[in-house]
Amino acid sequence: MLWLIPALPFFSALMLILGWRVFTRAAVSIIGCGSIGVSALLTIVLGIEFMQSGQTSVVQHLWEWMQAGTFSAGADLRLDALSLCFVFVITFVGFLIHIYSTGYMAEDADYGRFFACMNLFVGAMLVLVLADNLLLLYFGWEGVGLCSYLLIGFWYKDPANGYAARKAFVVTRVGDTAMAIALFMLFQFTGSLQIQSILDKAPTLWTVGNTTVVWIAFLLLGGAVGKSAQLPLQTWLPDAMAGPTPVSALIHAATMVTAGVYLIARMHTLFELAPAAQTGVAVVGAVTLLLAGCSALVQRDIKRVLAYSTISQIGYMFLALGVGAWSAAIFHFVTHAFFKALLFMGAGAVIVAMHHEQDMMKMGGLRKQLPAVYWVFLIGSASLAAIPFITSGFYSKDQIVWLAWSSAHGHTLYWVCAITGAFLTAMYTFRMVFLTFYGEARNHQHPHTPGPAMMIPLYILAILSTVAGFIELPHTLGHVTLFSDFLQPMLPAVHLLQESAALEWTSQLLAAGLTFLGIYIAWLWVIRQPEGMKRFAQMPFMQWLRVFWMKGWAFDDVYNTLFVQPFVQTARMNRRDIIDRIYTSIAAITRWFHDILARTQNGILRYYVMGVVIGAVVILSVLIWRVYV
Amino acid sequence: MNIHPTTAGMTLAGILFVLGLISILIRRNMIFMLLSVEIMLNAAGLAFIVASSHWAQPDGQVMFMFILSMAAAEVSVGLALILQLYHQLKSLDSDEASRMRG
Fold first, then answer.
1. CA-to-CA distance for A386 and A512, rounded, in angstroms?
2. A523 in the same domain as A580
3. What is the structure's pLDDT at A498?
């Protein structure tokens, strides 16, 4: 039965690719959503069965994919606690997003193509998380990369969208190359690509801090960084907002970008053997969450705010992975998937209502006009900003903030970054909410609340964004550990250095205080004192900083000068192929000899006779010289 | 001064040959070129005769017979060609016959 979960989306994608010109819109909707819905149902059934059986993992061997010498890779699927978590989020959130898409894309001419790509994406992502060996995982990994490319460039008639799609594809390819090298090294040293056997063998092969395993872990981190849009390969994600909003919700918030988190969690044994790489993961996460948080603070496009907040939230997950708080990272992934999908789809509802206006400066006052959207968006924002006690984001993020300091791999600096990030998150989130829904209406259009196909998924996600947090409560607040217990067989529990309720309270109160401070500043900024803020922002340094953050810390410019321009220059210089010069010069020399020889063929008899004479003289001289000397 | 007859004969043949060669190189009139070829052929014939007398063998003289008959045939063919060329070009200049642009 397990194979049906990824097979169904693939099958429906195939049907839609072959027949989307023939099917009616209703048929496309039923096939597109239905397959994901059945997958989601199957996941729930299988998940319950799996949890009741008490096994740690179920492996289903489908067929032998390839075999060469000692190497063999099968199309094997593996269900365990970690993959079940991901499969559940992918199918369930994916299903809701598909339903939402039937409303959002209803007017689009390429309705069938859209659902074909979305289904293909879900299928590839399911293969990624269910794969039992790294080769199959890599197959899914590249599959989601391809679908990401197809969907970012979905409205391909605008060249800017095609550019964004290519950028995403090329930038993630950098990480993928690192990951491929990691896989080669793993195979070379362990002789297998089967995940479990690698994890079993690794501690016997390598001691902690062994150079080889550090290299492998860093290369895997490279792959994860590319896919999860972390420093230094984060530049593709904000541009990926060129795709339709459901795509942003599904791929660039809820599922695909968390593939890097999955990879690191899956290969956690290797990272435990390589403390340097693990520190690298934490540092990448901590720095990324701050940089992206600052960038989110100054964006004008509502989707770009959300894009930067995604980068920032995944930074939190990386930080958690880096300090060894594996289950905290996965917990944040689950809650983040719910509330970020909610926020993206809420933003999509706003964008549709505003007739495809994305600039927040042209919105405002939508609270009265779109009350339903306002409420669900507010719930999502509260969760993103981690309002204490009532939101899931609070529980998952607070766990990370606390563990960033108290875990055995933790550090005060991580904690400072995390808590500053929490402050920034609250600020940019509520700046977005206030700009969009409060104040004067800065438009003269008449927004209309979207239909039920778009609203119902939002309601469901709004509920989940609230209650999903209660499956894991901190020591200080009830101490529920359903989620980490569930992941226990796969991911070891975090080692705490300090276990002090007082300190944990302090950390939580500080985080909560900073959250409210952030919201208060956002309120001052947007509603209470916009004039004062404007004057503050007019200062030259602030102007410069705003542009600098707006451009995402100018990473694009740096990469443009460092990589893109030299590449284009080289290509331009090499327009007339340098290698070709060798062959054209051979031809030129031949032609030169030809010209010289052709000159002797002048048809004047005397020259020919002279040639014969010279030849005879030379031959005679040689002969005489040979005989007499 | 005592010169061996073979040396004298060979020297004469060489001088004749070189004379013919030089005139073929400097002449453009085809009649004269044909004459020069004849001189060179006769120089070669003289060399055969001298060699034959030097070794007292008849082969050289037989060879000269061949050369004579070949020269006769060659002259007839050569003259016929020159006539044809003259008809076509209204000139005996050998350079006129070149149609190449090399």
1. 8
2. no
3. 65
Instruction: Say yes or no: A491 and A603 in one domain.
Output: no
Q: How confident is the model at residue A623 (pLDDT cuts 50, 70, 90)?
A: very high
Question: The complex's ipTM?
Answer: 0.83
Expressed as residue numbers, the domain containing A611 is 576-628
Q: What is the pLDDT of residues A555-566, one digit of tens each?
A: 888 888 888 899
Do A610 and B25 lie within an 8 Å CB cutoff? yes
Coil vs helix vs strand at A119 = helix
Distance from the A591 Cα atom to the nearest Cα atom in chain B, whole angstroms: 14
Whether B98 and A600 lie within 8 Å, measured CB to CB: no
What is chain B's Cα-based Rg?
17
Minimal Cα distance from B22: which residue of A? A610
In Å, how far is B101's CA from the nearest CA of chain A?
6
**What does the pLDDT average to over A380-395?**
84
Q: Which chain A residues are within 8 Å of B98, Cβ to Cβ?
A: 602-604
Minimal Cβ distance to B102: which of A603, A606, A613: A603
Other C-beta atoms lying within 10 Å of the C-beta of residue A568: 11
Residues of A whose CB is below 8 A from B97: 603
C-alpha closest to that of A147 among A253, A254, A251, A272: A251
Same domain, A476 and A368: yes
Residue A541 belongs to a domain = no
Do residues A516 and A580 both lie within one domain?
no
Answer whether A31's CB lies under 8 Å from A108's CB: no
| A451 shares its domain with A516 | yes
Check residue A615 and give its pLDDT.
Answer: 94
Report the CATH architecture of B5-91: Orthogonal Bundle (1.10)
Contact B99 A603 (CB under 8 A): yes
What is the per-residue burial (b if ≥16 Cβ within 10 Å, else e) of A496-514?
beeeeeeebeebbeebbeb
Q: Which residues of B touch A609 (CB under 8 A)?
A: 21, 24-25
- Does this model's pTM top 0.90? My answer is no
> Could you state, in order of their start, the residue ranges of all structural domains in chain B?
5-91
If one counts the domains in chain A, the total is 2
| pLDDT tens by residue, B6-38 | 899 999 999 999 999 999 888 888 899 999 999
pLDDT at site A478: 67
User: Tell me, what's the pLDDT at B8?
Assistant: 92
